[in-house]
Amino acid sequence: MRYESSCPPVSAMAMGATSMRAVMQRCYGDPNVLRVESIARPIPADDQMLIKVHAASINPSSGT
């Protein structure tokens, strides 16, 4: 991903794949580049786990 690059198109999901909603950033930019998309649910390996986030918050903080 480069700053000058345009946003790539959303790829199609495989048939029969279990989906989930995710906030995706496919290119650099301000918060307007963030999109809620349906993506294929990842399948964790034996030494991994999949965590469901119910809520999240982003708060501005001062740099001083």
Entry keywords:
about 60 residues, two-stranded antiparallel ribbon, mainly beta, single chain
List the helices and strands and how they pair.
Elements: E1 19-25, E2 34-40
Antiparallel strand pairs: 1-2
Write the H/E string, N to C: EE
β-strand amount:
15-25%
> What helical percentage do the residues reach?
under 10%
**What is the 3D shape?**
extended
The helix-and-strand class reads mainly beta
Strand order of the largest sheet: 1-2
- Global mean pLDDT: 81
Beta-strand segment tally: 2
Number of helical segments with 4 or more residues: 0
What does this structure look like?
- The protein has 64 residues and is an all-beta fold.
- The chain has a domain at 1-41.
- Helices cover 0% and strands 22% of the residues.
- The protein has no helices and 2 strands.
- The protein has strands at residues 19-25, 34-40.
- Strand 1 and strand 2 (34-40) form a beta hairpin.
- The chain is extended and about 35 Å long.
- 0% of the residues are buried.
Short description:
The chain is an all-beta fold and 64 residues long. Helices cover 0% and strands 22% of the residues. It has strands spanning 19-25, 34-40.
